[in-house]
């Protein structure tokens, strides 16, 4: 059981939760502007989305563990990887991937059904189910299968699309009962950029092994100094997008702005570590910190719209 828990990489779940939290905050904000209550449909949809993105994250982690071992990026030198170290057999991990994907499908369909039941949103519902299936395929194809796109450096864009734009805006649409705003892409960009930053930290840490295995991440393409600048741009762009929404596009509608701004200190500290680290291994602990800090920002946004919905 301990091997499976480690392979699931539970420390990545807070970052996935940020997708649901920020999207749920936007949905709650939309309902409040319409004078609607946060009823059972809202809460059921939010919980369903949260569980679905968690399962998708675990699916991605299982597929990454299996794919990197199969494609040679991880070997016996990585005792933290279950398949590469031999603690979990490849066939067992493949079975777990299939079962986890089935859980994601079940949760996703149930969530969309709960959000749209009794409405006329049949076509949009089918669209969201289709988007969920694409998300599952993207989670698997990141490092598994033939020619995984993560080995070509496309993993960053995938994170921005699925855990940022599609995840956050989709959650907002479902929890709000079908509302939509182009402005929602700004906080969605924040979540996506923070996810890209976590992925970049991971790739900076693993740059030597990835380069040897032919895994062309942006860390291997840009080099150590270039990766630092890339990380800096990601954090700056994400926070500018969030600030642009909270204090410009939808100014005055969000509580806890001071606490959210203070969370920026955690990201500033992360930048200092990135620029001063002498060894790639020093970045390992930063993955969890950035993921957790992003989730805390999402939690502040969510509580600001749901804790006192009157």
How much helical structure, as a percent, in the residues?
Answer: over 70%
Q: Which parts are unreliable, with pLDDT below 50 for 5 consecutive residues or more?
A: none
How does the major sheet shape up? none
Tell me the radius of gyration: 19 Å
Describe it for me?
It is a single chain. The chain is globular and about 55 Å long. It starts with a helix and ends with a helix. It has one domain. It contains 11 helices and no strands. The model has no long low-confidence stretch (mean pLDDT 88). Helices cover 74% and strands 0% of the residues. The protein has 310 residues and is an all-alpha fold.
Name the features.
about 300 residues
Q: What is this entry, summarized?
A:
The chain is mostly helical and 310 residues long. Helices cover 74% and strands 0% of the residues. The protein has one domain.
Topology:
Blueprint: H1 2-8, H2 13-33, H3 40-70, H4 90-116, H5 122-141, H6 155-175, H7 185-205, H8 207-212, H9 218-249, H10 257-276, H11 284-306
């Amino acid at each position: 059981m301990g091997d499976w828990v480690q392979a699931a990489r539970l420390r990545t779940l807070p970052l996935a939760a940020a997708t649901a939290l920020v999207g749920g905050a936007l949905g709650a904000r939309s309902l409040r502007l319409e004078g609607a209550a946060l009823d059972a449909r809202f809460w059921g949809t939010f919980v369903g989305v949260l569980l679905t993105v968690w399962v998708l994250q675990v699916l991605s982690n299982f597929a990454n563990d299996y794919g990197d071992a199969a494609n040679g990026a991880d070997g016996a030198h990585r005792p933290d990887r279950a398949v590469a170290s031999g603690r979990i057999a490849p066939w067992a991990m493949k079975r777990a991937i299939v079962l986890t994907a089935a859980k994601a499908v079940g949760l996703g369909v149930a969530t969309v059904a709960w959000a749209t039941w009794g409405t006329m949103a049949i076509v949009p519902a089918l669209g969201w189910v289709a988007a969920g299936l694409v998300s599952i395929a993207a989670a698997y194809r990141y490092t598994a299968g033939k020619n995984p796109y993560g080995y070509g450096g496309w993993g960053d864009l995938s994170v921005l699309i699925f855990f940022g734009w599609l995840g956050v805006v989709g959650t907002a649409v479902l929890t709000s009962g079908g509302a939509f705003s182009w402005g929602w892409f700004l906080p969605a960009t924040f979540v996506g950029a923070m996810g890209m930053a976590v992925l970049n930290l991971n790739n900076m840490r693993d740059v030597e092994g990835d380069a040897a295995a032919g895994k062309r991440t942006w860390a291997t393409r840009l080099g150590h100094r270039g990766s630092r600048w890339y990380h800096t741009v990601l954090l700056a762009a994400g926070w500018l997008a969030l600030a642009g929404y909270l204090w410009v596009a939808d100014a005055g509608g969000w509580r806890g702005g001071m606490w959210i701004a203070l969370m920026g200190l955690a990201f500033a500290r992360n930048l200092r570590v990135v620029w001063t680290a002498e060894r790639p291994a020093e970045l390992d602990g930063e993955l969890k910190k950035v993921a957790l800090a992003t989730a805390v920002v999402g939690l502040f946004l969510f509580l600001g719209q749901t804790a006192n919905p009157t």
